[in-house]
Design goal:
6-stranded antiparallel beta barrel; Peptidase_S1_PA_chymotrypsin; alpha+beta; 304 residues; 6 helices; signal
């Protein structure tokens, strides 16, 4: 190869690498939060069902499911996931910080996307502590939206999260000894910024992070509502409140002997004519089924 051409190509490649590793940080003041969409309101999602795109005015007027407001230190691993760009503008999901450099979220939220920003210390979205751009999006190789399978993605932050162990702290992962546990009848906490159902024109994300605690149901019971539930799913009752639109990717945690750790990542829920109707379990990705993949593709070390 011509030496000059080789130098030129190396320059182009270096520029591309730098662009990936150092994406521009997002200014929250530049976002019209009233038009940020849930996954179900994006043009891409609606196109799957042959539905026409929604205008920003329709988004403001069409927003339609109980929880408890979280204090900044209650759920320090909660991460807001802002997906921006494209014809639909910005959309929003939830996620969970698993180390200073990595965040887990639902593959359904970020599949096919290239520009994502993570919000940390954001229990109050009107006073976000940090917005950190994402330098790499890794979708689980077997993810299928159609089959509701392997709905998991790893986001690499462009810089380390400023962990203070009060308002920002990685969640503890399950141990390998937890893999055989079904967690049925355990109490689980789900946290996110999705719809609450308290007002018809509710923006996404909601201003305050909310959480709900309910019982893990067996997959056999869950299959009464969703026939495609499999061993890689874990379901949680919604009798006391639960996830809704905008909570995809939200962390589901349990407590054992004072240790709080991650068992699920919200994948999908039942949406009826009244929004996210209660009475049917919420379906989550079962984290114990993916410990090897998470460890191989992040800096997280799974304990025995």
């Amino acid at each position: 190869m011509n030496p000059l051409l080789r130098v030129a190509l190396l320059g182009v490649l270096l520029t591309a690498v730098l662009a990936i590793e150092s994406p521009a940080e997002l200014d929250p003041k530049s976002i019209d939060w009233s038009t940020v969409r849930t996954l179900q309101e994006t043009d891409k999602f609606r196109a799957k069902f042959g539905l026409a795109p929604l205008s920003d005015d329709e988004i403001r007027s069409s927003r339609i499911s109980g929880g408890t407001v979280a204090a900044p230190s209650d759920i320090p691993w909660a991460a807001g996931v802002l997906i921006h760009g494209g014809t639909s503008g910005h959309s929003f999901c939830s996620g969970v910080l698993i180390s200073a450099r990595f965040v887990l979220t639902a593959a359904n939220c970020v599949s096919g996307e290239s520009t994502v920003t993570v919000a940390l210390n954001a229990a109050n979205m009107a006073n976000i502590g940090y917005l950190i751009s994402v330098s790499n999006i890794l979708i689980h190789p077997n993810f299928s939206w159609l089959l509701g399978r392997d709905d998991l993605a790893i986001l690499t932050l462009s810089r380390d999260a400023p962990i203070d162990n009060v308002t920002i702290r990685p969640v503890l992962m399950p141990r390998r000894s937890d893999v055989q546990k079904s967690f049925s009848d355990w109490m689980a906490t789900t946290a996110g910024w999705g719809n609450t159902g308290n007002r018809d024109d509710e923006p996404i994300p909601t201003q305050f992070l909310q959480w709900a605690m309910d019982t893990v149901t067996s997959n056999l019971v869950c299959q009464l509502s969703y026939t495609w539930v499999r061993s890689t799913h874990i379901c949680v009752s919604t009798d006391n409140g639960g996830p809704c639109n905008g909570d995809e990717g939200a962390p589901v945690t349990v407590r054992e002997a004072g240790r709080i750790f991650l068992i699920g990542l919200h994948s999908f829920h039942y949406s009826g004519i009244r929004g996210c109707d209660r009475g049917r379990s919420a379906v989550n990705t079962r984290i114990t089924e993916y410990l090897d993949w998470i460890e191989q593709n992040s800096d997280v070390v799974i304990q025995p």
